Amino acid sequence: QVELPRPRQRRVFAVANQKGGVGKTTTTVNIGVALALSGLNVLVIDLDPQGNASTALGIDRTSGTPSSYDVLIGELSAAEAIQTCPDAPRLGCIPATIDLAGAEIELVGMEERETRLRQAIDAIPAEYDYVLIDCPPSLGLLTVNAMTATDEVLIPIQCEYYALEGLGQLLTNIGLVQQHLNPTLNVSTILLTMYDARTKLADQVAHEVRSHFGDKVLRATIPRSVKVSEAPGFGQSVLTYDPGSRGAMSYLDAAKEIAERGTREIV
Ligand code: ADP
Ligand code: MG
């Protein structure tokens, strides 16, 4: 396994797209593991009440486990809620428990409701090079918290029909967060997922996304692959479930590109 370069300063990503099923969780998990297996210290924060990222990483998320909910409401510090992933000792995870399902509504009545996660992340131990936040499929307060806490948004786009539907709304919301809450927020990275080379459609979507977003789009694309979809059922990333598979290789390539970009100046 190659070592990837450490960023000059910690990079925090919100992995977001209000469409469900586009590969947010799969991307968070596999990029997280890829970076961690390459010598970097990574923290995944599961901000989706479904808790799929926690499950895929083999992390306990039974009710009562210290979780992202406790961190958001200020009950625990981020450090107190971190568990270590069995797959990768350099990978920590703050899981989502069922409590998070009510947070979207509870937060409405709270002070500093948009900046709670940012405050928590500011206090994360210095050893973490990357923080990846898996957002729920909505543009509500949880996603707003993620976008307020990060500098970079990573948008996974599924190479399927309607791939670009809703993207305009996502970009508008990112613009609003930029204006009102977080001026340094930036869509730094777009990843094409579930790419099926046999279909013309996948090529068309990829071409359209690349012509619109230019070099924000990673060169690596993630193929549609059964191994990728099987791995979470074993509490594993595809990198440990089947290291030689195309899915594993493509997530490693994507992680490498992300890490190499991180050593450049981000404008
Ligand atoms: P989201 O978090 O955006 O809702 P997920 O990452 O959970 O999306 O992916 C949705 C479904 O598609 C899951 O069942 C997942 O296992 C599957 N999936 C994701 N990426 C791939 C891929 N590259 N190939 C095959 N199945 C995939
Ligand atoms: Mg998800």
Outline the structure in words.
Residues 11-186 form the AAA domain. May play a role in septum formation. Pfam families: AAA_31. InterPro entries: AAA_dom, DNA_Partitioning_ATPase, P-loop_NTPase. Belongs to the ParA family. The chain is α/β, with parallel strands linked by helices and 267 residues long. It has a single domain (11-262), classed as Rossmann fold, CATH 3.40.50.300. Helix content is 37%, strand content 18%. The protein is built from 11 helices and 8 strands. It has helices at residues 24-37, 52-56, 68-72, 103-106, 116-122, 141-149, 167-180, 200-213, 226-230, 238-241, 246-262; strands at 11-15, 42-46, 83-85, 88-94, 130-134, 152-158, 186-195, 217-223. It has an 8-stranded mixed sheet with strand order 3-4-2-5-1-6-7-8, sandwiched between helices. Helix 8 (200-213) links the parallel strand 7 and strand 8. Helix 1 packs across helix 11 (246-262) and helix 5 runs parallel beside helix 6 (141-149). The longest helix is centred in the last third of the chain and has 17 residues, at 246-262. The model has no long low-confidence stretch (mean pLDDT 94). Bound molecules: adenosine-5'-diphosphate and magnesium ion (MG).
**Helicity level:** 25-40%
Number of domains: 1
What separation lies between the terminal Cα atoms?
Answer: 30 Å
Question: Mind telling me the CATH superfamily name?
Answer: P-loop containing nucleotide triphosphate hydrolases
Helix-strand string: EHEHHEEHHEHEHEHEHHH
Q: What spatial form do the alpha-carbon principal axes imply?
A: globular
Q: According to CATH, what is the class?
A: Alpha Beta
Total strands: the figure is 8
- Rg, Å, rounded: 17 Å
CATH architecture: 3-Layer(aba) Sandwich
Alpha-beta content class: alpha/beta
Strand order of the largest sheet: 3-4-2-5-1-6-7-8
